[in-house]
Each structure stands twice: as C-alpha cells, then as structure tokens.
Write a structure and sequence with these properties.
globular; 17 strands; 509 residues; eight-stranded mixed sheet; 15 helices; Spore Coat Polysaccharide Biosynthesis Protein SpsA, Chain A; three-stranded mixed sheet
Length: 509
C-alpha cells in the first residue's frame, strides 16, 4: 500500500507587503485549483511587519484564504514572543546567532523569521504524516515566464512529493526566474554597460521615427549575468545586453527611451531593467547544490536541523552561506532541481517595492548604503565561511584561526570592491558625457527631453550611491566600522557550532 503524500507547509516571511503577499497567495490558490493535490497544503505567514495597517491586511488575507479552503496561519509578534519565552533561558542565550525576540520598533529580518517559523513548526506538529516545509518569499508566484513571454504552469506539489519519495533528501532548492535574486549593490556595473549601449544606439536614431529596437523580453540573465563581480562565484563576465523594447502598438524611439527611463528607477528596488532570467524547460534532474535560494527551498524532517546561519546579523548571502554548510555536511541529500518560482520585486500597479529593507526612498532621492553594507559584509562572511569549511569548520573552530581568515578575506574583498567602484565611476562619467552628446533633435523632442531629464536624475542617484565617494562605500569604510565588523563576524563564526548544537536541543525542548 502506497504511503500518503507529504503534507506541505509553505512558509512565507512577510514584512509590510500586503499587495505582494495577496498576489503570492492568490497564485498558490490557483496552483492548487489547477493541479489538485490529495495531501494537505497549508501556509504559515511569519509576519515581520511594523505597520499596523499592513499587519491587519496580512491577517485579513489569512482569514480570506482559510475560508476558501487554503489554511493560512498568521504568526504574529505575540506568538513569536511566546515562542521565544517558552525556551529555557540557557538555550535562548546560546541561540543568539539564529533567533532573537521581536520588538515593536525594528524588523528581525527574513532569516530570523524563517528560523522562528521552523522552530514553531517543530514544536507544534501533531500529524503523523510525512511533511515537507517549503520556504518562499512574499514577492514570488507559483508560475514561470519562458522565452517568448508565455507563462508556464508547473505541477510543483506532485513533483516535489515524488522527488522526496524517491530519494532520502534533506534539502532541495529551486531557483527563481524574473527579477534577479541579488542586490542592486552588485548590479550597477552591468546596468551602466546596458544603458551606455542603449544611448549609443539611440544617438544613431531619430527620436520621432518609429521604434526599431528589438521587441520582447529583456535579455535572459543566465548564470550571474546581472552580477558585477560574477567572477567571485566562478562565472565569466557577461557582455552588455541589448535593449528590448517592451512597448506594443505604434510608438517612437523617444517613447521607448521614456519607458526605459521610468523603469530605470526601479533598479534601487532590485529590478534590472535590461536583464531578466527566464524559465528554460528541461527534463527534471536532481544535481548537487552549493547554494540555497532562500526564496525557494524545501526541507524534509532531516532538514529541520539546519536553520539559516548567522541570521541575527541581518546580512545578505544567507542562502549561499547555508548552502556551503549543507554541501559539506549532507552531500547527496542536498540537491537542486529545475523548479523555479517567478520573482517580481515591484508590483506593476505600484511601480516600486512595498518594502525593501536597507533602501531608503526620500524626497531628496534614494539611499542604499544600508543595503550596500549588508551585501559587502555578507560577502565577507560567505567567503570566510567557505575558506573555514576547507579547514574543517565547524568541527574545527579556533577563534584565532577564524579571525585571521576573516581579516584576510575582508582585505581581499575591500580591494575587489574598490576596483569595482572605480569601474562604476568611470562608466558614470561616460554616461554623463553620452547624455550630453545626444543630438539637439533629441533634446528638442518633448518626450525625449523628459526621458533625458529622468535619466540625468537617475545618474545622479547612481553617483550618490556608487561613485568613488558614494554613500555605500563611505559607510563600509567609515573609521572603526571595518574592524567592528571583523570582530562581529569572528565572534559569530566562533559561536556558531554551539548555536547549531543548541538548535537541535531546542527543537526537542
């Protein structure tokens, strides 16, 4: 007799994103209607919101979908606090790298929310059926867009159920398609390459003439084609991507440039205006993994032993860091499969992200220095961890050796980031010159003039954030800040082995 299918619990960390969460849950409900699954499917919203109105709307979405047959539980601040309080004090102190108590004035971050959700599920699971916990992000949908623009619907639940039946898997990660999963802090160079290419082509055209740009989807960003420093991860640098105009119906070159200028502002929310990954259908095969896409990974009971590491530091690169640890510890039980989700950072109806930690939009402009710092020290942590694992970490974790590794990695990355900052500054100078060099008929055309003014403002925002004296670079190199982060990373890496052992104890507490 065949055992029953896995029960799925889909965990969605959310922070002040009711519109995007609504689209995400509607997409999941549509998936369940399109591919009815006999096993149980439920959702756990791990709410990290600060805005009371957003929290109320999240709670209302949970009630609405529950009433329609998709059980959605809302894990609010009070429940999170009660969960922390239920742990013995000695465990709480030793888990400080993984979880922290909620407060009313700051967000805990998606990594902490995932860990709290995992602990919540471990403590409350009453069903004897086998379960799978699927972590996703609130800005994703259960469908994918392929080349040519067609939307593909994948039978995720049955496929995942079958994969975990056939092999003793602990963690399976998919990927995401659509908007890149990386930070704008590491995309300014590729963005400027593409803008300069577009302006170079535009200089040869008449603004009032019918659009002759190729149409369709942006260039598919295979590998890490949107990442300025792809070489750090073993990928070759990508050439400039040609511009594909998304407009339909009769329109001019000036109209195309105006549309691009508007879309360029979404870059600071993580949208690359000219590079976008697309779904590529292929026979489903499991391959060894080294990175967890935290917005799309599934764990069995064996995966409960692996929370997001260093979660309370609030840094980016949490998924790659967890992936390096899983690769060393789990071997063939940690895999990746071609089961991506559609990633959309900015709702089309809104024109910007509802909530983007580390990115400050003000009337004066946009500042991503917080995001830049999270990315920079996330990279330092990741590559320090990678080096330490080669030395036997976490089984071997001497503080002196950890400090030496972190210092060496930080110095190397600081030089690499400085090199990239110089390259971006040079491109920014070229952008300013190219905007000024466009023929007078571009500036005389009303639509084109508005587009050029918008691009000039965008160039100023890029200069503020990515110039040689940019806000992010100043923050990273502020007096004493680098040494402070080296100390924090060293301490976190030294304490992690104890935190991981304590986590397993907390699961049973």
């Amino acid at each position: 007799m065949q055992r029953p299918g896995h029960a799925f619990v889909i965990v969605v960390p959310v922070a002040d994103r009711p519109r995007q969460l609504g689209e995400c849950l509607a997409s999941l409900a549509a998936l369940c209607d399109r591919f009815p699954y006999a096993g149980a499917v439920s959702v756990l919203l791990a709410d990290d919101s600060l805005d009371l109105t957003a929290i109320d709307r999240h709670r209302a979405l949970a009630r609405q979908h529950t009433a329609k047959g998709l059980p959605v539980e809302h894990l609010n601040r009070a429940a999170q606090w009660a969960l922390i309080e239920s742990l013995p004090v000695r465990l709480r102190k030793r888990l400080a790298e993984l979880i922290s108590a909620p407060t009313g004035d700051r967000r805990l971050g998606a990594s902490v929310m995932r860990n709290l959700a995992l602990l919540w599920l471990a403590r409350r699971w009453q069903d004897e059926r086998p379960r799978l916990v699927w972590f996703i992000d609130s800005d994703e949908r259960f469908e994918v867009q392929a080349a040519g623009g067609e939307v593909c619907h994948l039978d995720y639940l049955h496929t995942l159920d079958q994969l975990f039946r056939e092999r003793p898997l602990a963690v399976l990660t998919g990927k995401v398609v659509g908007d890149p999963p990386v930070s704008p802090a590491v995309m300014a160079g590729t963005l400027l390459d593409d803008v300069l290419t577009l302006l170079g082509r535009s200089s040869e055209l008449k603004p009032e003439a019918d659009c002759s740009f190729p149409h369709g989807q942006p260039t598919s960003a295979a590998g890490a084609a949107y990442h300025d420093m792809a070489d750090l991860f073993g990928y070759p640098p990508a050439p400039p991507a040609p511009y594909h105009c998304p407009l339909t119906g009769p329109h001019t070159h000036a109209d195309s440039l105006a549309d691009y200028a508007v879309r360029s502002g979404r870059f600071f929310d993580g949208v690359h205006p000219s590079r976008r990954s697309l779904y590529e259908p292929a026979p489903l095969a499991l391959t060894p993994a080294r990175t967890v896409y935290t917005g799309n990974y599934v764990i069995s009971d064996a995966g409960f032993a692996w929370p997001i590491p260093f979660a309370t530091l609030g840094l980016r690169m949490a998924g790659p860091a967890l992936g390096r640890l899983l690769k060393a510890a789990l071997g063939d039980a940690f895999v990746t499969a071609n089961l991506p989700l559609q990633h959309g950072r900015v709702p089309e109806s809104l024109g910007r992200s509802e909530c983007r930690p580390g990115v400050m939009h003000t009337v004066q402009g946009v500042d991503i220095s917080g995001e830049f710092e999270r990315q920079y020290y996330g990279d330092v942590l990741l590559f320090s961890l990678e080096s330490l694992i080669g030395q036997g970490y976490p089984q071997v974790s001497e503080t002196a050796g950890i400090r030496e590794t972190v210092e060496a990695v930080e110095a190397r990355l600081n030089a690499r980031y400085a090199q990239q900052q110089a390259a971006v500054a040079e491109r920014l100078a070229h952008l300013q010159a190219r905007l000024a060099a466009l023929s007078p008929n571009w500036r005389a055309d009303p639509t084109a003039a508005v587009a050029l003014a918008e691009l000039s403002r965008f160039a100023c925002a890029l200069r503020h954030n990515f110039g040689l004296d940019g806000a992010g670079w100043r923050r990273v190199n502020a007096a004493g800040r680098r040494q402070d982060w080296v100390e924090r990373l060293t301490a976190a890496l030294a304490r992690y082995p104890v935190a991981l052992a304590t986590w397993c104890e907390a699961l049973q507490a």
